[in-house]
Design goal:
By secondary structure, the protein is an alpha+beta fold. It is about 15% helix and about 40% strand. β3 and β4 form a beta hairpin. The chain binds zinc ion (ZN). Zinc ion binds next to loops.
Amino acid sequence: MIKEEESEEIATYTSKCPVCSRELTVKDYKYSVPFYGDIVISVAQCNNCGYRHRDVFTLSSGEPRKVIYKVEEPGDDNALLIKSSTCKIEIPEFGASIEPGTYSQGYISTVEGLISDLIEITDYLCNQENAPKEKCQEIKTMLEKARENKVSYTVIIYDHLGICDIVSSHKKPIYEKLN
Ligand SMILES: [Zn+2]
């Protein structure tokens, strides 16, 4: 999605690996996102245990907010999704959500990419022994229809730092204040 040559390395530093406690290297890159502005992608890599973590930041943070984006026709899902590890993402129509937290990654993708991710996660969870097979199938069918643009759905981001966003050239999301 984002090419290396469009990025600018702005910092390299070391930190402690959360898995093996050895030293790991963190590199920060600056990217310019069309219709949005500059963001920083931080990539941590542990050479000892192989731990990798990616996160997304903005140079300035904003107000806590809710971002609501409706996908109603083909092309709406080409919108860019800017996600940091601190945001919660929800698609109420499918009962799907991605929770923030230590193991949550930050990334830039498209809404279509988010749906593909959710299909992968659902596949993984539904292959567990005690998974509710019927419910799994129901969610998967919905997500696949979404990927083929056969159903409308809403992507809602709960963002306490004002970093996460959905950026489209032809359609603006609705922003609400988050308490
Ligand atoms: Zn490590």
